[in-house]
Amino acid sequence: MAFAVAQASASLSVALRTSKATVGRKVALSQAAKPILSRSTKRNVVVKAVETEETQLTTDLQEYDDGRDGDWNITYFPGMTNIESMIDEIYSNGYNKKICVYAPGGVAEQMLLLPLIESIHTRLPSVKIDIVCTERAKSAYDICPYVRITLPYNVGGEVIPDNFAEMTGTLKGEYYECIVSAQPAGAGEAFLLWMASSGNVLGYTENGAGSIAAKVMYTSSEPTTSAELGRLGTSAYDSLEALVGEKLGGSYDSSNLPKVGVPAKYQEWAAEALSAAGVPPAGFVLAHGVPSKSAAAMTMGAFPASASMDVQALELLTKPVVVAAPRADDKAAIEAVVGDKATVVVVDTAAKLAALVQASAGVLAANTAALPMASYMGKPAVGVFESEEVAALYKYKGVTGVTAEGVASAAAAL
């Protein structure tokens, strides 16, 4: 009996003894809680204990320099490779959260998403927002100050196995707190976002059989009335914004326009292009939406008949006209029609288009990205649509929607 008691006592003392590894972790974490003098320049930083006078621990890890003070006795290295601590990006203000938005469509469709991104930022000002979108659409976020990175992927398109696997790994490696899908999800999109291992996946689902899988895999979902969201006009993401607001909390005034900004290098590009053409800044009307087959045309895909306007409409403008053409081949064709009545500039990215919108006195455009840009920047604009019904769907603040028959009277006000 005495032997059993002694053995139990010895086992208890061993169990209560603090290991060197535990002491080392406590020392490292207490050091990590100190105020930080300079923010880390790396992402996904984790903390691992190293040798100190108290613990005499050793490590063969190479020191990872991320710009912090060298006296911290902490080794930094990228990735979640230390399963002991699993601490992601410790800063003086606590954990840094990230949200991913899965965004369909081209540049013009991304403009419709900016109010949703503004809503997320307003509700959670310190959150980092990443975007998954197509390669041709990612330039839209050059003018959005709230987006950290864009991840190119064939959103809403054909599933390519190796791209699917790569994107799955990328999303898992980012450790998103929340993923918001603006793409009406079927089984494929739902499985991709579910595999990202985020604790919160919410978004639109399609109306077909694939929505059954999406509803199971999503934390919260909202069915859409149209598989092609562009056909809903500017209200395409209203119900998604309401869902996001319900889950994220906070408040957001939907009457506020999203903030956009043009990077300095694109402002300089616009100034040089206008100067070379002899066009005075703020003294011209920007025309966008000439007939083109280029993917850089930045048109809404929902209504093809509204994607371009008659070049002859430019003759109705009294101010100097600058025509934004998506490629050099289109420039030559337009110049053959308008002659010296307008200046044609090749504009193949969203930031270049935004720079010209910002420098203009107003915008005359078909159903393209130029209309929401003009609205967000407070520029007067006239949008030319195929019918009054389509024009009524796109309710941009400060933009007058007309058909081809009504261009003359509306353009005179620019």
From TrEMBL:
Biological processes annotated in GO: photosynthetic electron transport in photosystem I
This protein's GO CC annotations: chloroplast; NAD(P)H dehydrogenase complex (plastoquinone)
Domain of life: Eukaryota
SUPFAM superfamilies to which the protein is assigned, alphabetical: UDP-Glycosyltransferase/glycogen phosphorylase
Name the UniProt record assigns to this protein: Uncharacterized protein
Organism of this sequence: Pyramimonas obovata
